[in-house]
Amino acid sequence: MSGSAAWGRALRALSLLAIDPEGLRGLHLRARAGPVRQRFETLLATLPGPARRIHPDLSDTALFGGADVAATLAQGRLVWQEGLATQPARLILPMAERTQPHLAARLAQLLDRAAGHGLILLDEGAEEAERAPEALSERLAFGHDLEETGWHQAQATLPAPADLDAARARLSGVRLSPDHIATLTALAARFGIDSLRAPLLALRAARALAALEARATPNDDDLREAAELVFAHRATQIPQDEEAEPQDDTPLPDPETDSADTDEMQDGIPDDMLIDAVAALIPPGLMERLQNARSARGMRGAGAGARRKGNRRGRPLPSRPGKPDGRARIDIVATLRNAAPWQPLRRQGESNARVIIHPSDIRLRRSETRSDRLLIFAVDASGSAAMARLAEAKGAVELLLAQAYARRDHVALIAFRGTGAELLLPPTRSLVQAKRRLAGLPGGGGTPLAAGLLAGATLAAQARERGLDPAFALLTDGRANVALDGSGGRAAAMQEAHEVSAYLRALGLPAILIDTSARSAPETAQLAQSLGAQYLALPRADAARISGAVSAALDAPAR
Amino acid sequence: MTAPYPFSAIVGQDQMKLAMILTAIEPGLGGVLVFGDRGTGKSTAVRALAALLPPIRMIEGSPTNAERPEDSPDWAPHPDGDIVERPTPVVDLPLGVTEDRVTGALDIERALTRGEKAFEPGLLARANRGYLYIDEVNLLEDHIVDLLLDVAQSGENVVEREGLSIRHPARFVLVGSGNPEEGELRPQLLDRFGLSVEVRSPTDIEERIEIIRRRDAYETETDTFLTHWQAEDAAIRDAILAARAAKPDITTSDDILRDCATLCTALGADGLRGELTLIRSGRALAAYEGAAAITRDHLRRVAPIALSHRLRRDPLDEAGSVTRVIRLTEDVLG
Fold first, then answer.
1. Distance, in angstroms, between B100 CA and closest chain A CA?
2. Would the pTM of this model clear 0.80, i.e. be above it?
3. Does the annotation mark B273 as catalytic?
4. Is residue B20 exposed (0-12), middle (13-18) or buried (19+ Cβ within 10 Å)?
5. What tens digit of pLDDT does each residue of B288-327 get?
6. Which of B97, B117, B315 minimises the CB distance to A431?
């Protein structure tokens, strides 16, 4: 899809949003900050209704209102301030990819309340996995990607405000037929879209399109465009004609009975046209990206307490008296509470200020966060390992997963085979996903040991940054024969593996190497040495023994 | 604010609806946990349940929704005001809520302006005799979960802070919902829920179309839609009230008790909470259907929602725990 077409579609979505802001909820825009996004934001500002800009670290108080500390102190009574979202408004959230799950959940609730709030996510994610939370983007009708759009391609502009106003006035008069509902619902199912919000939003979009074109009821073009706008970025599969046929009979009994009508809605044809239209717009490489999209979800939802960056937040401890030193945060409420009982007494002696606070009243905020542990498994799924004992390695990982579950650890799974390593499961607490990925892990190909180690090192460094405490478990037969650049050659591959091992060792995380080869070779033990890892050769081990050994080895240095 | 989507108009999701009706009949069950995919109507069902519940009688202005003056805590104003009817309280526990908001804390306004030490009740007080709803319960901060566990267990909220020493009753039904892909729930919290339901997106096209059709009607022709379905809701409400009245007269034979024990032992469910929940929910179901005694059929139908979350968790079992319960129930009850 060309850049100008993407721009045109994004603007089309924007006009629909102007017509039915309440029903369509909003839009997820993926684009880096730049002139194109700037132009889009300028157009966004021309939409009717109030807009508020929020940011991903917004506190609940700022969003939903709370005590106004300054005014409370000045007036000597509790003063509440309104939050940004108290009144219905279009909330614009830049840097949406950095939204914390808690804010995402609160915003999602706000959208569900249907109190007239809209949400525009401006997503600047650089990596594929870096995306706005799906809990939010799933609730919004539209999703657009303007990464590929150049400045000269961003030409199309919005319809005149008067036209949009007129369309909005016509909106309530637009009627849908049961056929429309059936068509769009069936279509969503064929694109593998599970959530029922998608067909609802598509219906809304179809209605807004009809209103824009001054039609009393949406026609085929409206349906097609609505499906394109709402379904294309949600699709998880491209309908196959063979398997679609039997499904086709079920969803459309109504059109058949109506076929006597001169209505243009005919059974199969518009449906196929619809599928082609939407399928043409599904971004290339969708299937590869699906994996990532899912993992992004897993990463975001690692459960409570996982996404703390640094350890500045966490379980609150009782605040303590002290002087603000620039780093500590004052616990205002505790300070006020501390000062409160003395107010009548202090007023007698001193000024007649409403609230008199002495330095001794000041309380500082304290919190403690325990770092969550992350177990990174790098599993050798190469042909040589697969021949030997991939199944046993899988069994050991499964047992460890069960232990990790009991201890609320996070786990991540990397597999390496063929020419590279693949992050099968980004850090998550979701066992369901871990299990699923592990079961689907195929074996075969060369042994790109260095690539696997590198992927593990990268992940460990990332995890540290997010406040996790990583540990590394490598399951391999040590027969490296593929270098980082994908070329073969045992010597070069081993050399690289040692180099990456040294890098990993410098990260200083507890590590263990489990030799899964049938006969252990000295090279593998050497590798463990350069990795700084404990070496376990368990030629006849069963899964339970591996698992016991690993937890003992990893626990010792970690705690 | 428009009226919530009517309970009776929810298509499918029978287990979820059954679980919610059972807690309405028997608040002692300990609440419902609804886990499932996005866009399956979890929140919709909870909001709908709130509208469905019969009103309670309480002293006007009582912070803990007390019905009799002797139930009113000593710090509460107007312990003997007029008795009024109010909708059953359904209190939302938002994510990111502070401890103060949940348990209640020193009333800052009165402390600052009058220098008085007074208690400002929190969400737990407001939820007394009603429902406490936690959306995305699996994302709740751990320290808030700890608080809830303690109170849900004892039925009493004890506040010992800032020189306050306050206690008040906090008996509520916990209703939680969440998406398992975003993280699991701590087993301790899981066990506090009486019933648990897994919901999935319907796969049947006809069913999906019907859902969209109704939802669309709700959004575009709200009044007609509500008029139609609110009558159905009223019928369910009457049935719930009748079941509450009939519940004490339901007989439970020794055979049924033995069945429950056998079933729970076979499943390896921890503790006795499983048996208790099974009996209570079975009784509620029998009352709802106008039966005179609990039968095996009742047990069979409530077993999946009463027991599936109590199994010793085997994270590597491919078959879900619901399937395990159903399979074993068939084995044990025949």
1. 10
2. no
3. yes
4. buried
5. 998 888 888 898 888 888 888 877 655 445 456 777 778 7
6. B315
